[in-house]
Amino acid sequence: MAILVCGGAGYIGSHINKQLNLEGYDTIVFDNLVYGHREAVKWGRFVQGDLSNISDIEDAFEKYDIDAVFHFAAFAYVGESVDKPEKYYYNNVVNTLNLLRVMREHGCSKIIFSSTCATYGEPERVPITEDMPQNPINPYGMTKLMVERIFKDYAKAYGLKFAVLRYFNAAGADPDGEIGESHDPETHIIPLVLDAASGKRPDIKVFGTDYDTPDGSCIRDYIHVTDLADAHLKALHYLEKGGEPDFFNLGNAIGTSVLEVVDAVKRVTGKEFKVVLAPRRPGDPAKLVGSSEKAQRILGWKPEFGDIHTIVSHAWKWHENAEY
Ligand SMILES: NC(=O)c1ccc[n+]([C@@H]2O[C@H](COP(=O)([O-])OP(=O)(O)OC[C@H]3O[C@@H](n4cnc5c(N)ncnc54)[C@H](O)[C@@H]3O)[C@@H](O)[C@H]2O)c1
């Protein structure tokens, strides 16, 4: 029995692939390498394939005895999704339908899916719980919400067994330094601030310093990628034991402001760099913090790397000697 890790050459998928192998699972990483890195697939087998191509998915299912799927493959640039929604609806929704079809044809019913806090849009309060209204404010968030709804219908009609994991801000890197975050283009705050610290960028811009938060900058919930990996393994065990299809937030429930991230990077790296205070960007909520009480209660998951200092330290360890 093997696990198919779609998008496993990417940032989060590669960390889950490592964890699965450490726990003794046999993995097949399926990735078209549009954004992923071949070098990040250090464990299991690799199949270069595209979810838009049904025969690529069928080949993988015919060659390997796949018992469960982890589905990370998607486009995830919020701004681009506003300018090019078609690209996002095709890759994130239509291509997921392709995957679900082949899974069904091969009697594979377990899937663990990367959703996002972006499905909540502007929350009415924090911490965000799973039962709060989901009103995405961009096509990216909408694609993920659509997949969530599709899963619900497939569970009813076809017996799909899913765990939908709504991540807050994935951050950090493998504590052993073997893999890490490398997006091109990069839009995530921690690697961008680290680039400023290492002189790869001239400065870091802080968008908005007049929010209703203690230091005026936006507050986000950073969750260590290794904690995410642990939650994925627990979600798999949950489905293996017959757990009902369900939705879980994965966050630390700790809000960290952009200025606190900048400060943590200065402390960890010991480097000074230019910080530019810029106006707010449209569509950035002041505060996004998730409650992970449900994941703790049902999956038995507890984040280990809560503090921003550890998250930034691991990211920096990778960043200084990044292989890709
Ligand atoms: N990074 C975050 O903070 C965050 C937060 C919430 C949700 N997510 C979701 O988690 C998932 C992983 O995010 P990431 O940061 O690791 O992104 P990533 O871009 O590093 O990884 C995605 C991988 O999927 C592959 N891929 C994309 N389309 C494909 C296709 N059609 N066929 C085969 N492979 C394909 C890419 O090549 C890439 O390796 C995404 O679904 C993203 O929406 C990420």
Question: Secondary-structure blueprint of this entry?
Answer:
Layout: E1 2-6, H1 11-22, E2 26-31, E3 45-48, H2 54-63, E4 66-71, H3 78-83, H4 85-105, E5 110-116, H5 139-158, E6 161-167, E7 169-171, H6 189-197, E8 203-207, E9 219-220, E10 222-224, H7 225-240, E11 246-250, E12 256-257, H8 258-269, E13 274-278, H9 293-299, H10 308-320
Parallel strand pairs: 1-2, 1-4, 2-3, 4-5, 5-6, 6-11, 7-10, 8-13
Antiparallel strand pairs: 9-12
Helix pairs in contact: 1-7, 2-4, 4-5, 6-8, 6-10, 8-10
The structure holds nicotinamide-adenine-dinucleotide.
Residues 7, 9-13, 31-36, 50-52, 72-74, 76, 91, 95, 114, 116, 167, 169-170, 183 line the site of nicotinamide-adenine-dinucleotide (NAD).
Strand order of the largest sheet: 3-2-1-4-5-6-11
User: What is bound: which ligands?
Assistant: nicotinamide-adenine-dinucleotide
CATH superfamily of the largest domain: NAD(P)-binding Rossmann-like Domain
Output the radius of gyration: 19 Å
Distance between the termini: 31 Å
What does this entry look like structurally?
The protein is of the alpha/beta class and 324 residues long. It has two domains: 199 residues, NAD(P)-binding Rossmann-like Domain (Rossmann fold, 3-Layer(aba) Sandwich); 99 residues, UDP-galactose 4-epimerase, domain 1, CATH 3.90.25. Helix content is 39%, strand content 19%. It contains ten helices and 13 strands. The strands form four sheets. The chain has a seven-stranded parallel β-sheet with strand order 3-2-1-4-5-6-11, with helices on both faces. β1, α1 and β2 form a beta-alpha-beta unit. α1 packs across α7 and α6 packs across α8. 50% of the residues are buried. The structure holds nicotinamide-adenine-dinucleotide (NAD). Nicotinamide-adenine-dinucleotide binds next to α1, α4, β5 and β7.
